[in-house]
Amino acid sequence: MINQAIAQTITERNRAQLRYTDWIYDARIATPLVYPAGTEPGNPSNTLNPPVIPLNDERPLLLEFDDLRGDGAEFRAYILHCNADWTPSVLSAVEYLSDYNDFPLYTYQTAAQTKVPYIHYTFELPRVKLPGNYVLLVYRGRNVADVMLTRRFMVYTNQLNIGAKVAFSTNVQLRNTHQQVDFDISYGNFQVLNPREDLAVVIRQNYRWDNALTGLKPFTVNEFDRKLDFRFFNGENSIPGNNEFRFFDIRSTQTRGFGVNTIERRAGQNNALLNTDTPQQGLAYIQTSDFDGLFVIDNTETHRGATEADYWQVTFTLKMPELPDRAVYVVGAFNFYNRSDANRLIYNPVLGAYQVTMPFKQGVWNYAYTVENPTTRQADTRPIEGSYSVTQNTYEILVYARPLGTRADQLVGYRVVK
Length: 418
Prior knowledge:
Immunoglobulin-like; 29 strands; about 40% strand; 6-stranded mixed β-sheet; mainly beta
């Protein structure tokens, strides 16, 4: 069958470079978004909701992205089911989809009144039959090996009750910098044979995967009440509070938005030079409103951001002494907190500052600066942004299980706590 051939091609591609994560494989694909459809179509704030929905939710998930080639290429989508650790499951597509697993993207619009040409694509994701982790893969033409992007999404059923709260870390040394997510799971009639091993728990902060807590085991097991307690006293479920995200506003071409120092209106493309940033580590915490690292696309003049928001070149400047043997990056949901040459800042000794210029679509964008450890290759925002236990963050608790008689992990519990 053709479907089996597609799956085999994807498997072969995966061995080489396919990632079961949020990723853009072609630099000409920009601003990919996956989010639940809102009650007000076209409202920019709809995209602030993560791609996590109940199994029987009436709202579909929507995909949007821009093709900067603007040549009207044909794109198709494919859905992959994954286990709790985001490795591909053994399920065939007919087990988790009612539709044939090859979806053409027919809905698109050409950008209007923009200096940078692009075609804006939209796609309503098909409904799945099973709760769990999924990867949406978009490829070009009919060549499934020509992958453009992959985006994760989750579908859940609440077969468990999750009670949770966020507090200061109980570890005295971490009390001023870390937050602790205390929670319990009541599994009631849900069949659990080995309470310590049968459930996989993940805690995400601000919808991120790069710093998610995994592998947590219950501190106590109450088999009589069928309840698991995850309240630790050794900092095992503590997460750095980090800091509020920085942000800039380039929705308008007529006036400078927040965080913008200068707008250069050029014939081919507008440029925005942001205000000079400085490190916040060691300073007093200042409460500000942010999008928890996310962003919204909008054009103040037309409010038709999907097709009338232009792409600008945005320059970041971070004034601080150079960090020898350390790489500094600007990150956020806009690049899935990934690090590459495109978002690495280069030190300018004349300015005494790091700088990088990147393209952004008009909107309001959250960002932060992170430092990469050359030995571990791990990144940490704390050396520049600081970390505070009073920072406002959003946490998600995801509980996975593999019910008896099934062959893959399912998302059987989901809770959001701030």
